[in-house]
Structures are given as structure tokens and as C-alpha cells.
Design brief:
Strand content: under 5%
Oligomer: single chain
Number of domains: 1
Distance between the termini: 33 Å
Largest sheet: none
Number of helices: 20
Shape: globular
Radius of gyration: 23 Å
């Protein structure tokens, strides 16, 4: 193959993919067709054909065998985990446990009624804790709009400031229940809980602190240009803030996290050496929730309908997330087959950039991709599988590059006017989406800069 010709073709394909994504074409189809096209093209160019493609079948069926193999491998591992997470999130939302968690978590805000701007930024760490347990950005955003938005508006916080704070709470997609975390740990071949405890939490604490300070001053600056805000009642068209579940139901969304931490080996809580995986924790917590619902309602038919909600949630995750992971992995295989990674590494070594430079480039690339796609998941799934090969060539751990990519993916989503969470929350708050984006720009860029400075300064 002509030197760097594969890189040139890869960049053309990436540009076409981005353009189609901006036109709102189905992303799974784009990534799948683009990936298969690059793999086939690499064969004609005598490039480094992806080894997984060679199935021993007639060449015509090789790519279809590859699709089957990708679905089989992913569904048996990370795919099942993600579907279990989706089913559990749908179930706790149905029984009102998510709302109960939000209601309980927000009680500390009552102490700051005289300081509305301070109360607003204190929502961020509380929201982050909730987001760890309810890892759906759009779903969590709407829950916060139902429970937090009326409180902040009644305290005297402007509607735009309140909704920007709520969207900012989803800037860091971390925790064992996060689909990006599940994908990152599967790619790096490490356990989820140590990745969460030892890698995600330390940097998330720093980034949340920076986010709080940034939002405090940014919203204070922009609010000066608005008419004086008086405490008002929230629009009656907003979602109801009254939870149908008792307060103790707040434990249900937290239960998988408690199980994973208790039986992970990180904390020696029990004398017996037990280890529970995320999928198991989700199924166990679901059955605990079903039992509590049975005791509370004594309606067997309604309780058993929870199984349908759970399985529907699993199905929704398959069609939206798992299928995207498979398509993205095939897309990544196509980039590898065309020599994208080898060329990129060769150029970086020639320029003396090294692993740190590649890590920074990939982190920013993911951030921009999430902004364009409106989805942190899609951006990470498309480029995450490339990292083990990059890390191997430079002799660094995969997590040293995957961790900042993990975080920057969800950051980029907070600046995307086409992101589901921004569109949904803007609609409830009756404010323009671009006004939310404007409020989010400085805080999100501040945490991105802090992430790059802190992580790569510490790891390299």
C-alpha cells in the first residue's frame, strides 16, 4: 500500500460518516457500512486486513461471518451487561424509585434557601451521584427537571441557569452502571469496580469542583443581563414533582452500586471472598425491587408486569446501544484494516509526539465527535476500540488513554444542540437550546482543559 494512502482514505471515510451523522442518518447503518467498506477496500489495496475477518468461509461470506462473530461476542459479554443496565433503569423509573432517589438526595438543598446561586451549584455533586445510579442522561435530566428545576426557580435562580446546571450534572459518565464505563473496561480488559474507584472517582472529584466554580461565575455573569429574577412558581406543564413511591425506594437504584462495591475485593467488608459482576448485580437488584413492589402493592399482576418493563428496557438498549457498539467495532476494524492506526502512530513518532500527544488528540477528537453526534456513547464506541493497538505500540496502559476519552465523550454531549438531554430539558424549561449551550461552553471547556492538564501531567 502507498505510504499513508490508507490514512488518507480513512480520513475521507470519517469525513463522509460525520457529514451523514449531521444529516441525522441512522448511525448504526453508517458505521456498519463504512466499516465493512473499509475492510473490503483494504483487501484490494493489499493492506493489513483485519485478522478477525478471515473465517475460512468463501470470501463472499467472510464479512457476514464477521458481523455474526461481532454480535455473538459482544452480546455474550458487554452487550448483556448493557441490556441488564437498561432493563433495570427502565424498571426503577416505572416504579418511581428514580424519583424517590432524587427526592431524598435533594433534601440538603433546603439549608441553602437564602443563597440561590450556591444552592444551584451544589446540585452538581448531588446530580453526579444520582447519575452514577441512574446512568441515562436524558432520563436523569428529565427527573432533575421534575424535582430540581422547580426548587431552583422558586429560590430565584433564572430558568436558563437552572437548566444549564441540570445538563451539567451529566458531564461525567462514570460508575459501574454507565455503558461507556462498561465499554471502556471491556476494551481495556479490566474489572469495572477498580476502574471506577481508582481511576474515575479521583479525577471526577476534581472536575466536579472545577465545574461548580465555573458555573457559579458564568451564570452569575449572564444573569446580570437578564431582568431581575423573583421567586416564581414553575410552569404547570412541567413534569410532576410528586413521587408515587415511598422514600425508602431510593435504596433500589443505589443497590447495584452497593453490591458491586461490597463484593468487589476493593473493600474487604465480608470475610468470605465473593465477587459480583455488574450484570448479576442488576438482575439481583431488579428482583429485590420486584419483591418490595409486591409487599407494597400486593398486586401480583401489576408487579409481574415489571418483567415486561425490564425486558422492554433490555430490548431498547439492544437496538440503541448494543447495536451501536457492534457497528462501531466494525467501523474501528475497518480503520485498523486501512492502516489508520499504524499511519497515525508512524506520523506521531516522526513528529516526536509520543503517547501523551496521541492521548490528547484522541481525547479532543472524542469530545468534538460527541458535540457533532449529540451522543457521547456513539463517539466513544466509534474510537474506543482503536486504543489497545495504540497503547500497545507506545507501551502504555490502555486506561491512560481510555479514561480521558471516557470523560470527554460525555462532556462533548453537554455542548451539542442536538443532544437528547439538551432538547428535552430546554423544552420543559421553555428556553432556547442554544442559550443552554452558551451557558455550558465555559464550564465544559474549563473541565476539559483541567482533565488534559491533570491526567496527562500525572500519567506521562
Amino acid at each position: 500500500m502507498i505510504p499513508y494512502f490508507g490514512l488518507f482514505l480513512s480520513l475521507i471515510v470519517i469525513a463522509i460518516v460525520v457529514r451523514l451523522l449531521l444529516k441525522d442518518v441512522f448511525p448504526q447503518a453508517i458505521l456498519l457500512i463504512a466499516g465493512l467498506g473499509m475492510i473490503l477496500l483494504s483487501g484490494f489495496l493489499d493492506g493489513p486486513k483485519h485478522e478477525a475477518i478471515s473465517t475460512g468461509a468463501y470470501p463472499l461470506f467472510d464479512i457476514f461471518e464477521f458481523i455474526k462473530k461481532s454480535f455473538s461476542e459482544i452480546n455474550a459479554g458487554v452487550g448483556l451487561m448493557i441490556m441488564a443496565i437498561g432493563g433495570f433503569v427502565a424498571f426503577i423509573d416505572k416504579i418511581g424509585a428514580s424519583e424517590a432517589l432524587v427526592k431524598v438526595a435533594l433534601k440538603p438543598l433546603s439549608f441553602f434557601k437564602s443563597y440561590p446561586n450556591l444552592a444551584a451549584v451544589l446540585v452538581i455533586p448531588i446530580g453526579q451521584l444520582i447519575f452514577i445510579c441512574v446512568p441515562s442522561a436524558a432520563g436523569m435530566g428529565l427527573l432533575m427537571m421534575a424535582a430540581v428545576f422547580p426548587i431552583l426557580v422558586n429560590l430565584g435562580v433564572s430558568r436558563i441557569a437552572a437548566v444549564s446546571i441540570i445538563t451539567g450534572c451529566t458531564s461525567f459518565c462514570i460508575g459501574p452502571a454507565s455503558v461507556i464505563t462498561a465499554s471502556a473496561t471491556q476494551i481495556a480488559q479490566i474489572d469495572t469496580v477498580p476502574y471506577f474507584i481508582n481511576m474515575q472517582i479521583p479525577i471526577a472529584i476534581i472536575l466536579n469542583f472545577v465545574l461548580m466554580i465555573s458555573y457559579f461565575f458564568v451564570n452569575k455573569h449572564y444573569d446580570k443581563k437578564l431582568p431581575k429574577v423573583e421567586p416564581v412558581k414553575v410552569d404547570e406543564t412541567a413534569p410532576s414533582t410528586k413521587s408515587k413511591a415511598p422514600s425508602f425506594y431510593a435504596i433500589i437504584p443505589v443497590l447495584p452500586l452497593l453490591l458491586l462495591l461490597s463484593f468487589s475485593g476493593v473493600f474487604q467488608i465480608f470475610p468470605i471472598a465473593l465477587k459480583i459482576e455488574t450484570t448479576t448485580a442488576m438482575f439481583f437488584s431488579f428482583f429485590v425491587g420486584m419483591l418490595l413492589e409486591l409487599i407494597r402493592t400486593r398486586d401480583i399482576k401489576a408487579v409481574f408486569a415489571g418483567f415486561k418493563v425490564f425486558f422492554d428496557g433490555m430490548g431498547d438498549m439492544f437496538k440503541s446501544v448494543v447495536s451501536l457498539i457492534v457497528a462501531a467495532e466494525i467501523f474501528a476494524a475497518g480503520l485498523i484494516a486501512l492502516g489508520f492506526i499504524d499511519s497515525l502512530i508512524s506520523i506521531s513518532q516522526g513528529l516526536g509526539i509520543g503517547a501523551m500527544g496521541i492521548g490528547i488528540i484522541m481525547t479532543i477528537m472524542i469530545f468534538l465527535a460527541a458535540m457533532l453526534m449529540g451522543s457521547g456513547n456513539a463517539a466513544f464506541f466509534a474510537f474506543g476500540p482503536l486504543i489497545p493497538n495504540v497503547a500497545l505500540k507506545f507501551g502504555v496502559p490502555s486506561t491512560s488513554i481510555l479514561l480521558p476519552m471516557n470523560l470527554s465523550a460525555s462532556m462533548g454531549r453537554a455542548l451539542s444542540p442536538i443532544a437528547g438531554i439538551l432538547i428535552a430539558t430546554a423544552d420543559v424549561a421553555k428556553v432556547p437550546v442554544m442559550e443552554i449551550v452558551k451557558r455550558n461552553v465555559i464550564p465544559v471547556l474549563a473541565v476539559l482543559f483541567t482533565l488534559l492538564l491533570y491526567h496527562f501531567g500525572l500519567c506521562f
